Amino acid sequence: MHTERVIETQVRSDCTHHPVCPSAEAADREAAHTVVAHFEQGWSLLCNGVLLFDDTGELLPNGVVIAPHRPTDFHPESFGHLAS
Question: By residue range, what is the domain housing residue 17?
Answer without folding.
Answer: 2-82
